[in-house]
Every structure is written in structure tokens, then in C-alpha cells.
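Collaboration report, partner site 2.

Our partner group contributed sequences for two proteins of shared interest, and the home lab folded both. The records are reproduced in the order in which they were received, starting with the first partner submission.
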Amino acid sequence: MSFSRSTSPLPLPANFQRDCFSAATKRWKYLRRVFKFDQMDFEFALWQMIYLFVAPQKVYRNFQYRKQTKSQFARDDPAFLVLFSLCLFVTSVVFAIVSRLTFLQFVNFLLYAIFVDCILAGLIIATIFWYILNKYFRVNEDQDVEWGFAFDVHLNAFLPPLIILNFCQLFFYNGLISHEWFISRFIGNTFWLIGVCYYIYITFLGYGSLQILQRTNLLLVPLPLMLLFYILTLIGGINITHFLMQFYRDRVLIAS
């Protein structure tokens, strides 16, 4: 016995729905849930954060499931963003302690970290990827990369470097990395190499999971360039961590 889809009491799968929400409607629904903590799945968001370190490809399988069930790749639950903001706050506290910042200087650094280093940089990077991939990498002109998904990919890729560089690395800074020894710049620069490689690889996995894109392996091209730059900094005596710590301190002091 066969049944017509029109007589089924079940809703249509997202892939077959005719009246899907617009991008603006999806963004509004997402932002409206930011302060509704009881509606957020923090356990699943924490699972995603952990697996971004150990098996990031599994995180993007969930994006595929969301596309099949909700007709969008981008997250519709702001729980990940809330936990990400908490990580940003904790790492900023660690930086302030290591750098011996005053409370006002800490507030300035936190505002810079949130609105400049994370949000502004994320908006720029996500927009660049969204434009270039839709223009040059699409297989099917009828489908495109969602901007919200591009921003999610940036947040996914940004989390491991944030924890590695702004948390784990700082515990070694004053006692070891801040000196002029070779081992100091080797450890500091290695932290940065790992962090940047994480960002590139997770970004590649994110866009590589989309079947509407081709040649996404080109996103891995910066990896050997980063390795070459890493070797040159060791030979040239450049301590990347020390240089950037001084840059962030100066930026905070100027703002204060």
C-alpha cells in the first residue's frame, strides 16, 4: 500500500519543504535565543568543543544532519556561542594575570578581544570565504554557501588556537618563553604553528564537508607556507609569542 506525501500527517523533510525561512529570519530567531539559556543544549555544544580538538570531522557531520532536518548548515542553537564567549573571558583573565594588567586594562583587553580580535576579524574572514567560495568554488549555481555557516566555520577553527595560545601557552610565558634563548622561541613559535595549523585544517574540513564546493583542498596550501615561516623565525631569532604579547600590552596601554 502506498500513501501520498500530501496525506501524510508528518511534516515534509527540510530538503523538500517549499517555504523555508529566509536568512534574515534565521538570524533573528538565532539572536532571539541568545538569552534563553533554558532552550540551549550546552551539553552538545561542549561535546562539539571537545571534538574540535580530538576529531573535528565528527563535528561537521552534525552540520550535514542539520541541513537534512532543518534546511540550514549554520547553527540554530547559540549554546556554542555562549560557551565560546566564556572561553574568551577566561583566556582574557589568564592574559591579564600573566601580563599584570590593572582591572581597567583588563576590561580594555577583554573588549578588544571580543569586538576586534573575535567578532570583527570573524566577520571579515567569514565574508571573504563566503564570497570567494561562492564565486569560484561552487559546483551547482543553484546552491550557495550560507554566510552563517562561514561564520560558524571561523568560530570552530578559532577555538583550538584560542585555548592553545591564549591559555595553555601563557602558563609557560614568564618562566620560559619570554627569554631570548633558542628553546624559548622554539616552544613559543611551536605553539603558534600548532594553533595556526589547527585553524587551517578545521577550516578545510568545514568547507570540504560541503558537496556543493570543489577544489577545497586548495585551502590547505597555507600549511607548507606556515611551516616555512616557522623555520625562518627560528633561524632569524624571532620570538613570535614575545612580539605579540608586547603588541597586545601596548595596545591596551594606549587605550588606557
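Second partner submission, folded after the first:
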Amino acid sequence: MIEIKNVTKDFPGNNKAIDSLNLTIPDGKIVGFLGPNGAGKSTTIKMMTGILPLDSGSITLNGFDIEKNALEAKRIFGYVPDQPDMFLRLKGIEYLNFIGDIFEVPKEIRAERIETLTKQFNIYDALDDYIQTFSHGMRQKIIVTGVLIHDPDIWILDEPLTGLDPKSSYMLKEMMRDHAAKGNTVFFSSHGLEVVEQLCDEVAIINKGRLIFYGNIDELRDEYHTDQSLEKVFLELTDDA
């Protein structure tokens, strides 16, 4: 479970990037995080993962405060950033073993997971190449593989499907469904509203740093008295952005 309580974030010379945000993401759900560009999605995710400090409020992951219990919290989530351009001077296999070492994944289990995941994502034969030689899609796949190696309870994914080919995108969505079905939490941002509508149990919509809706698609339609698609409702809700 992810609990965000009264979280605020200011940046110099700007209005509140996040303004008194309250959001609880339960176990066993896939939750899509939506908002126009600049709404505060990536800022929220970076605070959830400890990359950015909170100005006020608190964020807990399975009961661990991301600021007060940072190491404990970071052991139980996996994070895919919106830009996969990191550790470019490492070979693919070096990066995955580095992640495995950090999370103390036993070598036999690690080797099995690396082989299985990289073959599924069709990057197994590139593991001895440097990440800087990878295409954007391959970099995305290696980052996702690194997240899955230690099998974290909570997945926090910032635009995880960007750059993936259709087969890899399909596999990742199936992995997300399986992970949630086991009672775990999947929280991801996306601009792909059709994907969110098909995949997610619930959606959280943010605009100008404020949460304007949280619930399932049927609840969204009931609240706004419409039978339109998520895309059309979303555009109406955020048309001042």
C-alpha cells in the first residue's frame, strides 16, 4: 500500500508543484496516474521514491516512511524512471548484476531471472554490450528487467511503456496484471489513455498539483454523468491546463 498524506512541493519561482496531495493506493490494484504535462506526475513519483524531498506531509510504502525509513522503504519497491538513460558505461549484464548486488538477490535466483526476463524482452543476446549502444527501447527493457530482478512488492513506473515494441509492451502489461493479482501494488503514470482504461483497476487524475479524481472508470463516469471514454472525460477535466 502507498499512502500519500498532505504532501506539498514548491519549486523556486513557481506555484506549488504539488498542493496538499492525499492519495491511498491499495494492495492488489493497478492504478494509473494521469495528468497533463506539468501537472505534477513525475514530481509526485520522485517524492514517492525518495529522489525529491517533501516540503510537507508524508509518504509511506507498506508502512515505511520514505524519508524516516528510507532504506526499508526502498527495499520494497521497484522504480522505472521516465528517462532510461542511466549507467550507460556499464554492460547490460554488469548493470543487472549491480542491481542484484544492491538488493542481495542470491546468484542462482538472479541468473535465472535475468535469463528469463531478458529472453522475454528479446535483449538476452545484447547483455555483453554497453548500455550506451542500446536503442531507447532496449534501454527501457534493461531498466524494467533491473526492477523485476528483486521481485519488489510495489512497482512505481513512470511512463513504462514508452519505447517498447508491441510484444514487449504486451508482456509488461501481463506482468503488471500478474503482480497485482498476487496482492501487490502497481502504480504507473501514462499518457496512453486507452491503455490505462483497459489495464487499470483505478485511476488518479492530477491537475496543477491537485488531485481532481480517484476511483475506477465507472465511478468517474457516474460522477460526471457521462458514458464517454476515459480520453474524452480526461480532456474535459483538464481543459484549463
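Feedback sent to the partner group on the second submission included the following. The first helix runs from residue 41 to 48. Residues 198 and 217 are 10 Å apart (CA to CA).
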